[in-house]
Amino acid sequence: MFDAARIVLTVVILGFSAVPAYADFNKTHATNPEWTPHARYHVVWQVASYIGIGLVALGLLWLPGPESALRAYLAALLALCVYGGFFVAAASMRLYGGRLYDDNGYPPVPVRVMGRERLIDLNVTVFSTFVFLGVCGVALVAAG
C-alpha cells in the first residue's frame, strides 16, 4: 500500500515540478514577447523553485531512511504549499488584476454543460486533479 502511495505522490509532485517546466518554458510564458522582462524573470524563478521543491519532495519520498510515512507526509505538504499558492493566487485575482490565462497563452477550453457553453481553465482543471490525487496519496499513506 505504501508503494502505491509513493507512486501517486510522485505523480502529484511531477505535476507541480515537471508540468510547469514543460508548459511555461516557451513562447506562452518565459519567452513571451508580450510579457515584460521582469514578468518573464519571475516565471523562470517560479518554475526553477518548483523544480527544486519537487526534487526535495521526491528525495523525502524515495530515499531510504527512517520515518518513511512522516517523510511522505512532508512531501505531500510541500506539494500542498505549491498547489495552495496557485489556488490562493486564483482566488485573489481581483486584488491584483490577475487572470487565469493570457490571450496569447493557453486559452480556456469551451465545454457544453446543461446546454450552456462554459470555459474551463486548463490550469485549474489539471491542478485540481493533482490535488485530488494528493489527497488519495495521503490516504494511502495513512492506510499503511
Automatic annotation (TrEMBL):
InterPro entries: DUF6640. Residues 1-23 form the signal peptide. The chain crosses the membrane at residues 47-65, 72-96, 124-143. It comes from Mycolicibacterium elephantis. Keywords: Membrane, Signal, Transmembrane, Transmembrane helix. The keyword Signal applies. Pfam families: DUF6640. The keyword Transport does not apply. This is DUF1772 domain-containing protein.
